[in-house]
Amino acid sequence: MRRFIALLAVVAGTASAADALRPPLLLTARTAAQDLGGTWTYSKDYYRTSLTDINGWVAKSRMQRFRDVDVAAEEKKSGPAFFEFDLDRGPTMTLPGAWNSAVPELRWYDGLIWFQRRFDAKLVPGQRSFLRFEAVNYRASVYLNGKPIAQHEGGFTPFVVEVTDTLRALGNRLVVGVDSKHDAQSIPGEITDWDLYGGITRPVKLIRTPATFIDDATLRLNDAGRLVGSAQLNGPQSANQSVTLRIAALGVTLQARTDANGEARFDTPAPASLKRWSPEAPTLYDVDFEAGADRVRDRIGFRTIAVRGSDLLLNGQPVFLKGISLHEEEIAPNPARRLDEAAARRLLGEVKHGLHGNYVRLSHYPHNETMLRMADELGLLVWSEIPVYWTVDWDNPAVLDKARRMQAETIYRDRNRAALVLWSIGNETPVADNRTRFHAALAQTVRALDDSRLVSAALLVERKGDVIQLADPLLAALDVIAVNTYAGWYGDDTLDRVARLRWDVPADKPLLFSEFGADAQTGFRDATLRRKFSEDYQADYYRATLAMAAQVPTLRGLSPWVLKDFRSPRREHPVFQQGWNRKGLISETGQRKLAFTVLANHYKNLSSPLP
Ligand code: GCB
């Protein structure tokens, strides 16, 4: 404990920096926008020749894919100039979606590709225009009409850039260099257990606003039973403006004035008629914010989440999290990380209606915004995490800054989602002083940015004979303890032994099994020998692990690994895996395995709310 306090002291200065982490532009709840999805052209740039030439010299202009040039027209003129690209005549790809699944030639491509979209735009005098990218994996260099307008690192969070002065009415040329390469300083690092999935994997939208607009607006229920929130204006008329907040269904109308920084704050007792959001009754309200010529609407649920001793309290009542983990990968034979509404509904529908669940762990990175909204709508509590996974460069302050920025981008994006109750700051990071310092700093950043949700991390456990222990100094920084446990799959334990294992964990905090699981190839049945990779073994493994879990007095939730088989370059058993991690309870095409029913029955039979 003393060691942990010392660590906290080192990072104490960072909390005050929370405001500085707010992304400069958010435009989170805009539905009216020009969708730039559809057909784009692309050009591979394996040696990054658009950016630098040999010896690090400035790139040759004939290589620079981002130039606003009509190559075909230039080629019709006589003269010495020539080009080694032409995005107007390049091959096409439908975006959003990962390139690895779009074109067989790009299945294992890991590097830079340039994408181009031509579009016309309606220019309205006095209005402002913005491009919002929901996710580009992993690094983005954005050019509009030949001009560099944005750079972004991080494959799972949005970024916004103003284009008012660069946009033209006809024939805009939007070019995005997407570099999927990860390195020792990236988050995640170079090795994970999921697919590379490079590309523009989430929507790109052109958003128009009045000169002064509502960049972001938030509202939540606090523990004192009050609705508290704020609206942030951006533009020349931001200061000392009136902002109106309306929840028509509750008869609520509030007004507040913005301060010198353009922020208006709201704080009012929640009306008695307010129905709290819960998995059983996921009530959402249309909340309207209006300021000058601008208005935005968000659909928001209201609930509280807290910890009391080893209990998790949702709206003041103990809750047991009946969940599952999942990757952002749609049910399909050749998924492209394309989570539109139908795909999100199908995945989360399996959790809600198939497994009788009330909870999902959206691993191992912030998922598509559609998933969060679907969880709100269906009534599934959510664990969200940034990809501080296995190992990143713990000693590098720039990497910590990157993690903080990703965390901030996620929090500002999702803070109106009632479903979201847990922020996780890491997954299976090996215990060491530098790693604990890094996480403690991140935990503090999360609390400074959002003290209304709980902080957790998926930790590694230690084994002493039949006893599983947790001796991680990071525990002190967490509200909820979470562990990944694979006894009975990795290692030599028989399943009889798994059911006998005992847990020695702190009694004063809720414990979650954030992962447990076993591979099974759909259709491989082995009723006699019940070998690993058979559906029978996976089902037995679930029975044994659930029996073990039932003996842990502080256990408050489960998110086994994993809902669906997912692509992973680590998994190359030629018979059973073929490039897929097979720990899914359903196959990549949605076929349920035996263990699905084992878990579904377990959840169905758990007495509510505690087991
Ligand atoms: C883990 C990781 C997860 C892997 C899983 C596995 O502990 O957190 O990303 O995919 O194990 O299948 O081994």
From TrEMBL:
Looking at the record, the residues that make up the Glycosyl hydrolases family 2 sugar binding domain are: 102-210
Keywords from UniProt, A to Z, are: Glycosidase, Hydrolase, Signal
Q: What is its EC number?
A: 3.2.1.31
Q: What GO MF annotations does this protein's record show?
A: hydrolase activity
Judging by the UniProt lineage, the source's domain of life is Bacteria
Q: Which family does it belong to?
A: Belongs to the glycosyl hydrolase 2 family.
Q: What is this protein called?
A: Beta-glucuronidase
Q: Which organism is it from?
A: Pelomonas lactea
